[in-house]
Design goal:
Distance between the termini: 37 Å
Helix content: 25-40%
Structural class: alpha+beta
Largest sheet: 5 strands, antiparallel
Shape: globular
Number of strands: 5
Radius of gyration: 15 Å
Number of helices: 3
Length: 112
């Protein structure tokens, strides 16, 4: 099976301001063509032997598999969570025009 060329990468953060910061930085760096920020969601999880419940904003980064490693590094460095959620989901199919746009917007800029 051929690996997917495009990915949707998920992360969460604890404020809308932080979500916008992460999204804007990724798009400015061409690591994502688009980032969708969902309204607050409730996350329930185990952390340091305690069950936690937190309101978070979920981000969906639209990118290519080629840019994933750089996006992951960016998220690790820019995120303030000790262990941020960074999960890549393959895009198996999609509109050719949309996926072409994602590829074009995440292509590294070359110097002349």
């Amino acid at each position: 099976m051929t690996p997917p060329a495009w990915l949707t990468v998920l992360t969460t953060t604890d404020s809308e301001e932080k979500a916008r910061f992460l999204a804007r930085g990724a798009v400015e760096a061409r690591l994502a063509a688009c980032v969708q920020i969902s309204a607050p969601v409730t996350s329930v999880y185990r952390w340091q032997n305690a069950i936690e419940s937190t309101e978070e904003w979920q981000l969906f980064f639209k990118t290519t598999a080629e840019r994933y490693d750089e996006l992951e590094v960016y998220l690790q460095e820019a995120h303030d969570y000790e262990t941020p959620e960074i999960i890549a989901l393959p895009v198996l199919r999609g509109s050719a025009r949309y996926l072409g746009w994602v590829s074009a917007e995440t292509a590294p800029v070359t110097s002349l």
